[in-house]
Design goal:
heterodimer; A: alpha+beta; 3-stranded antiparallel beta sheet; 15 helices; 8 strands; B: alpha+beta; Alpha-Beta Plaits; 5 strands; about 15% helix; binds iron/sulfur cluster
């Protein structure tokens, strides 16, 4: 008797713990094998781009926190950099260093969480995730000291940052920097030799370099596919040209490479923070915010500025008509574009690997849906 | 990366986990034990000083949410009398732009963070509620208050046994 198989259509999400927010996939399954994936999003759409058109340039900064809320400092930075480029505002050097330190610490947080979620989706119960969370919590405490909140910082301003670093910041961050490598080694010991992770991650969710470029992917996902591209090195913004760091690339573009690229980038960011803290000692205390009128009116024109956010190239496109609010505000969010490649990564794999692949792309629905 | 004999990686992982078994906890039992929030905290209330406020409504214009409501009338010396000063804390995103914008430093962040209520209407803070004497003021954008506030508890200084 011949076995007859039928394709099954399964809705995963929008409320599903492994979809990292309200994300829905319509998956066509043949047994356990994925035949078709249709990502659907928009459940968290708040219309931030439209809302911003009715706000002044300063009032938009809190919205950029809510794009990628896992790394809101980077959202702040990209937006402020775009407005500064448009209006030709010079940022004080001290503010540049502060921005650099907080943003690179943010990249460490983001990558640790991304790996933590990824490992959790591979079926490790919360242990590795909570170890990462503990390190994150230390940094989040420091952010609270800086700007008063732990999650949605609203710390940067057009032309600088809102506050100078408080005096207690330096001893605390030095202590963190001293201890971090040994704690980080602990995650590595826990995870790198684990057979289950290797068996589940190596060779799943593969994307080739060519496909990754065609999908316009960016960030760790692109670098894991062995494309040597990092905006911090290749189109340096702010003061990145003063720091030494390596751009980490993977080989095969599979889940394992994405995981490894993130883990190694954490240590590169750690190096940048260390250099920045050293160089900051030589910067004399001074203003941390340029003189910018409260109701800024940038000249008529348009600008696109992209930064290397933890998830990839986060770009801000602003059209100014010379008034106090932007005429058009658009965000190129990296995870939205990276997510487009999910279909190609997942077709032909098992459904369990689909979940792992989704986690390894590292999406944040706040910036996917905007 | 090559696969090691099955089991070694698992044992290594378990070893790391077991090292945590004997260490002190680093979490707090929340309602009984409390952490001190940052001196610059942007906690869940705004504190308003009726003596300093001139009713200029700069804060209203600075708010991205549009949820501060200020109504004024003309006083005897041609000044403003603030009739109504309201913040809908259910809609406030605690961004701090109003505190930053106030030219007379009459608006502060409070340090209280337990603000849940049974209905949204109760979250609207009016003049009296925003200016109560028991309100602790945060040093967010008010650097002269900074030194008087208690130091923030930081996890990094928590005594927990260092592993490895
Ligand atoms: S904190 Fe922000 S949202 Fe809240 S009232 Fe002030 S400006 Fe408006
Ligand atoms: S900006 Fe300050 S002084 Fe003006 S109305 Fe608001 S609280 Fe009062």
């Amino acid at each position: 008797m011949a076995l007859k198989t039928d394709l099954v259509t399964l809705n995963i999400g929008p409320h599903h713990p492994s979809t990292h927010g309200v994300f829905r996939m319509r998956v066509t399954l043949d047994g356990e094998m994925v035949r078709e994936v249709e990502p659907m999003f928009g459940y968290l759409h708040r219309g931030l781009e439209k809302l911003a058109e009715g706000r002044t340039y300063t009032q938009i900064i809190p919205f950029t926190d809510r794009l990628d809320y896992v790394s809101s400092m980077q959202g702040n930075w990209g937006y402020c950099l775009a407005v500064e480029t448009l209006a030709g505002i010079e940022v004080p050097e001290r503010a540049e260093y502060i921005r650099m330190i907080v943003s690179e610490l943010q990249r460490m947080i983001n990558h640790m969480l991304a790996v933590g979620f990824f490992i959790t989706d591979l079926g490790a119960m919360q242990t590795p995730f909570l170890l990462m969370f503990r390190e994150r919590e230390k940094l989040v405490d420091l952010y609270e000291m800086l700007c008063g909140q732990r999650f949605l910082y609203n710390y940067m301003r057009i032309g600088g940052v809102s506050h100078d670093l408080p005096p207690e910041f330096f001893p605390a961050v030095t202590k963190f920097m001293d201890e971090f490598p040994s704690y980080f080694q602990e995650f590595e010991d826990l995870l790198i030799g684990n057979e289950i992770i290797q068996a589940r991650a190596i060779g799943t969710g593969v994307i080739s370099a060519e496909q990754a470029i065609n999908y316009s992917m960016s960030g760790p996902c692109l670098r894991a596919a062995n494309v040597d591209w990092d905006l911090r090195r290749d189109a340096p913004y702010s003061i990145y040209d003063r720091f030494k760091f390596d751009v980490i690339t993977g080989k095969n573009g599979d889940n394992w490479d994405r995981y490894r690229v993130r883990m190694e980038e954490v240590m590169q960011s750690y190096g940048i923070v260390q250099q920045a803290l050293e160089q900051l000692q030589e910067v004399p205390p001074g203003p941390v915010k340029a003189k910018v009128p409260n109701l800024l009116r940038p000249p008529v024109g348009e600008v696109y500025v992209a930064i290397e956010a933890p998830k990839g190239e986060m770009g801000f496109y602003i059209v100014s008509d010379g008034s106090i609010a932007p005429y058009r505000w658009h965000v190129r969010s990296p995870d939205f574009i990276n997510l487009g490649a999910l279909r190609d990564m997942a077709i032909g794999s098992k459904i369990a690997d689909l979940i792992a692949t989704l986690a390894s792309i590292d999406i944040c629905l706040g910036s996917v849906d905007r | 990366m090559s696969l090691k004999p099955v089991g070694i990686g698992l044992m290594q992982g378990l070893f790391v986990v077991f090292k945590h078994a004997t260490r002190k906890r680093i979490t707090e039992q929340y309602p009984e034990e409390r952490l001190t929030v940052s001196r610059r905290t942007r906690a869940q209330e705004l504190v308003w000083d009726p003596g300093l406020c001139t009713g200029c409504a700069t804060c209203v214009k600075a708010c991205p949410q549009g949820n501060l409501k200020v109504t004024t009338s003309v006083g005897p010396n041609n000044n403003y009398i603030v009739e109504k000063f309201e913040n809908d804390e259910g809609r406030c995103i605690f961004c701090g732009l109003c505190v930053e914008a106030c030219p007379y430093e009459a608006l502060f962040f409070g340090r209280r963070y337990e603000r849940s209520q049974y209905s949204r209407g109760e979250l609207i803070a009016d003049k009296d509620e925003m200016s109560g004497d028991d309100k602790e003021r945060s040093a967010y954008f008010r650097p002269d208050l900074y030194d008087d506030l208690p130091e923030q508890t930081l996890l990094i200084y928590r005594k927990h046994k260092k592993i490895i």
